[in-house]
Amino acid sequence: MTPPGTLMLEAVEIHRDYAMAGDAVHALRGLSLAVHEGDYVAIVGPSGCGKSTLLSLLGALDRPTRGAVRHRGRDVARLDDRAATDFRLRSVGFVFQRFHLLPMLTAAENVALPMAEAGVPPRERRARAAELLAYVGLGARTAHRPTQLSGGEQQRVAIARALANRPALVLADEPTGELDARTGTEIIQLFDRLNRDGTTLVVVTHDEELARAARRVVHMKDGAIVRDERLRD
Amino acid sequence: MPAHRPAFPPSSPCRRPAPRGRWRAAIGAALLGLAAAAPAAAQAPLPTIALDARLRDDAGIRLGDTIAIAATPDGPARRMVVAAFARRTADPSEVARAEYKVRLHLADLQALLAYGDRVDRFAVVTRDSGATDRVVAGINARAFGFRAHRSRDIAVETGRTFAVINRFHRAIGVITILASAIFLLCIMLLRVEERRREVATLRLIGLSRRTVVRAIVVEATAIAVLGAALGTGLGWAVSQVVNRYYQGLYRTPLVFSLVTGEVVALAVALSAGLGVGAGWLAARRVVGRPPLALLGR
Fold first, then answer.
1. Residue B140 to residue A86: CA distance in whole angstroms
2. What is the mean pLDDT of residues B220-248?
3. Domain ends where: B141, B158, B175?
4. B103 and B154 share one domain
5. Residue B266 and residue B228 share a domain
6. B165 contacts chain A (CB < 8 A)
7. What residue ranges define each of the domains in chain A, with the CATH number in brackets?
8. Can you give the pTM of this predicted structure?
C-alpha cells in the first residue's frame, strides 16, 4: 500500500484552450496542482473558472492543450483512448452532479457494471455491489431502479458505483449540486467517511459546507489557482 | 361407343354409383340451359351428369335431382339426373372464372352437342414418365390435326404468366426490404442519439467503445429478431385471413398466401442482418464522439 502523503496526482503547467466561433477560449492557463495519497481536496471558484475542465483533465476524460497530468508518475494526458478508458475503469471513480445512473438497471446492477467490464466474476461482483450499497446506507434498496430512489439515494448509488473497482482516487463534480441541504449533508458525511477509510478525494463544488468538510481548499479564478489553503491534516 | 360405363372419375369427390355403364370424362362443356325438373321416370333411366359444386350451392340442387340441359338457350333440352358434384381444383388460372363446369359421359355430350364422334381434348394417364413419353410419341406419330403434350409442359407454358406475377411480387418485396432497412437505420440512429447520455455515462465510468458497440448491436439484433418473430406471427395470421376470405369468395381450395419455413428463415435472417448492420452503424456513430461532447459539454 502506498504510504500516506505520497504524491498521487499531479497537474503540471496545464493549459486547455477551446475554439469557439473562431476565437480561442483559455479555460485553463498554466495551472499546476499536486494531490497526495489520502488527501481530500475541494476545488471552488465562480462558474466558468475552469473547475470542471480541471477535473476532466485529472480524470483523463479530456486532454490538455499543453502540460502534463501524472497519476502515480504516469502521464495520463498522453494515453490513447483505450488506455484512458482503462485508467478511468480501474484507477479513478467518478461522481457526477446528475448521478448518471442507467435507468433500466437496478441499484446493484448499476454498481456492478464497472466490475463486469473489469472482468470480476458475477458472484463476486454481486457480493461486492451489495457490500458497497450497504456501505452507503442502501443495503435494503439493492433491487430498486433509479426512478424508485430519491435524489440523495441515487447519488449514494453513484458513489457506490465509483468505488466498485476499489479506486484509490475519487473525482466528484458538484456531487451535492442537485440535492437539498439535508441530503447534501448526508453526502458530505459519506465523503468524509470515505476519505477517513483511505480514499483520496478531489471534489469540485459551489457548496460551502462541502468545501469546509475537505482537508484542503483550492480557489480558482479565470483558469488559474489563486489560493490553496489547507484546513486540516 | 362403349356399351358399359363406370362411375364418375375419382376427381369428382361427391360421386355416387352411376346407374349406367362405362364413363369417360368429358370436361369443358358449357351449361347453357338448366332447369329443375320433376323426379326421373322410373321405367326409363335417364343419363347422369356431374355438376359444379358451386352450382349446387347457388341453385340448391341435390343429388338425384333431374335437370334439363341444352347446348343453346333455345335448343332441344335433354333430361339428366345429377349423380355427382365436382369441386374446383386449386388451379390459379380458374380462380376468377365465373362459369360453371359440368361433366357428362362422352356419348351424352356428343348427343347433346350433335358433334358426332369427335372430341376437343382427351387426357391419358400413365403410370410413369417413361410411359408418358412413349404415349406422346406414339400419338404424335399417328394423329392428324392435333398434337399431344405432356401436362407438365402445358403447366410450364400456362405458368409463364404466373412467373411474371411472381417476379413482380419479388420486386415489391425487395423495395419493401430496402425501405425497411433505411427506416430501421433511421430509427436506430434516433434511438441511440436519444440515449447518448447513457452512452456517455458508460464511457465516463470506463466501459470501452467495444463494449458499448457490442451492447447496442446485441440490443438492436434482439429487437430485430423479436420484430421478425412478431412479424412472422402476424404474417401467418393475416395469411390465414386472406386465404379464408378469397377461398370463400372464389370458392376454390387454392392457397393464396403461404408462409413457408423458407420465408420465415429468410425474414428472420434479413431482420437479424439489418438489426446488426443498423445497430453497428448507429453505435459507431455515437461512440466516435468524446463522452463529454455526448453530455453537451
1. 84
2. 91
3. B158
4. no
5. yes
6. no
7. 7-230 (3.40.50.300)
8. 0.69
